[in-house]
Structure formats: structure tokens, C-alpha cells
TrEMBL record:
Originating organism: Vibrio porteresiae DSM 19223
UniProt keyword S-adenosyl-L-methionine, yes or no: no
Domain Nucleoside phosphorylase: 17-199
InterPro entries assigned: Nucleoside_phosphorylase_CS (IPR018016), Nucleoside_phosphorylase_d (IPR000845), Nucleoside_phosphorylase_sf (IPR035994)
Enzyme Commission number(s) of this protein: 2.4.2.3
Protein name (record): Uridine phosphorylase
First-level EC class: transferase
Keywords in alphabetical order: Glycosyltransferase, Transferase
Substrates-to-products reaction catalysed: uridine + phosphate = alpha-D-ribose 1-phosphate + uracil
UniProt record similarity statement: Belongs to the PNP/UDP phosphorylase family.
Length: 244
């Protein structure tokens, strides 16, 4: 069995059903929802836990920030046998009326990241797997938490001098949120023949200062932390539904 160079795991340590997230500490919080959860590897930004949910083996893996590290994790997870991957991440709203801690399910993504463009031209769409979308909505529809389906924009920096103008542009075109990893996951996941989806917890109100919004999240505001937990549960339920 071959040890992957960045995740430092082999195929015996990765299940077919995987949750990915950016932040390593979020791996621990998601793993707390599993049975028999145990750490299996940690290297750089990549932390992996293995456990079970409803009897199904589940791997949880952090990817760090941005498309390049997301794609390293994605490729090595696929090399180890991953078949379905859902991102449980955070995002900033691009529409008014999306509150903090409300959930955003990406039907597709605007590919403003450089990582996926290194694989295939921008005309190739970033689309989520329909069966996973259906299962996510099935769970969310039963929760007392607002959620939104739509197009998100994935990008490589929110500290650009013209970031406010870019956000306004895509808001006018109907994008509902922005993050830094979804488009890479959906694009390359599709190229690699796996099922992929992304559910995001809103941590920045539209036109709110980014640093202020992220700071509130780091302070573990209860509403947003509850949003993360519901997003993780939705992902687990989607991954372990029949024929997931």
C-alpha cells in the first residue's frame, strides 16, 4: 500500500465517504459527531480522522485555505479510494437577507480560482452531484435553520484592492456567496469521476467587513457554530443515505 506524500495515509485509512473542511480544528468538531472516531494522520494543513456514522466508515480531512491545497487533498483522497466527498466549509454572503449561521448549498460555482483552471479551461462547468444535493436538502428541510441553494463564487484572495467591486458584480449576477475551495472540488471531482458537493456556513454578512465577520467566527459565536454543526450533520446524512 502506497503512503500519500501530503496526507500521509494509504488506502486502508480512507473510506469511500469523505467530509473535507478547511480548518484542521473543524475536523475535530465534525469527528465528535462520529462513533469510534480516531485520528489517523496530521501533516501541514492536513488532519485526518476516521470513524463511523450509522455504521458507515467516514473520513474527515482538512484541506487548508484555497484551491491548491484542496486539490492536493482531493487527488490523494481519490488515490486512496474516496468515491463521495462533501465540503463542510464557511462562506461570505453575496446577497442581503442571508444571515450569519445560515447555510448555503452550492449547486455550482463560478471558477475564479487558479487551481481548477490548471486542469481545464474556464468553460468547463463546476457542478455539484445531483444525488448529494437532493440528500442535503432532504435533511435541511427538516431542520429549523434557514438554508439557500444557488451559485457560489470561489476565488483566490479576499484582500484584493477591488474586492468590494467584484463582490458587487457577482451579487448582481445572482451569486449567493463566496468561498475559496468549492469550485476546485466540484470541477476536479467531476474530472476524477467522484460525487462532490459543498455546504457552507455563512460567516460574513453581505457588505460586512471581512475581518470583522471572520473575527466573530473565531470567537465561536453560538449561531455560527450551530450552523457548522447542522452543516456537518447534513453532510453525514447525505453521505450515508442509501446508494450515497
Amino acid at each position: 500500500m502506497s503512503i500519500q506524500p501530503h496526507l500521509t495515509v494509504d488506502e486502508s485509512q480512507v473510506s469511500e465517504r469523505v467530509i473535507v473542511c478547511g480548518e484542521p480544528d473543524r475536523v475535530n468538531r465534525i469527528a465528535s459527531l462520529l462513533q469510534e472516531a480516531k485520528p489517523v494522520a496530521e501533516n501541514r494543513e492536513f488532519r485526518l480522522f476516521q470513524g463511523k456514522y450509522r455504521g458507515y466508515p467516514i473520513t474527515v480531512c482538512s484541506t487548508g485555505i484555497g484551491a491548491p491545497s484542496m486539490l492536493i487533498a482531493l487527488e490523494e483522497l481519490v488515490h486512496c479510494g474516496a468515491k463521495s466527498i462533501i465540503r463542510v466549509g464557511s462562506a461570505g454572503a453575496l446577497q442581503k437577507g442571508i444571515g450569519l449561521g445560515e447555510l448555503i448549498v452550492a449547486e455550482g460555482a463560478i471558477r475564479d480560482d487558479g487551481g481548477s483552471l490548471s486542469y481545464v479551461e474556464s468553460s468547463y462547468p463546476a457542478c455539484a452531484d445531483f444525488s448529494l444535493l437532493r440528500r442535503l436538502e432532504n435533511y435541511l428541510s427538516k431542520q429549523e435553520r434557514a438554508y439557500h441553494f444557488g451559485i457560489v463564487r470561489s476565488h483566490d484572495s479576499f484582500y484584493r484592492d477591488d474586492e468590494a467591486q467584484i463582490c458587487q458584480k457577482w451579487s448582481k449576477k445572482g451569486a449567493i456567496a463566496s468561498d475559496m475551495e468549492t469550485s476546485a472540488l466540484l470541477t476536479v471531482g467531476r474530472l476524477r469521476g467522484i460525487k462532490a458537493a459543498s455546504i457552507l456556513n455563512n460567516v460574513v454578512l453581505y457588505q460586512q467587513d471581512v475581518k470583522e465577520g471572520i473575527g466573530m467566527y473565531v470567537d465561536a459565536d453560538k449561531v455560527m457554530m450551530d450552523g457548522e454543526r447542522i452543516a456537518a450533520k447534513a453532510a453525514l446524512e447525505a453521505l450515508t443515505s442509501i446508494d450515497a
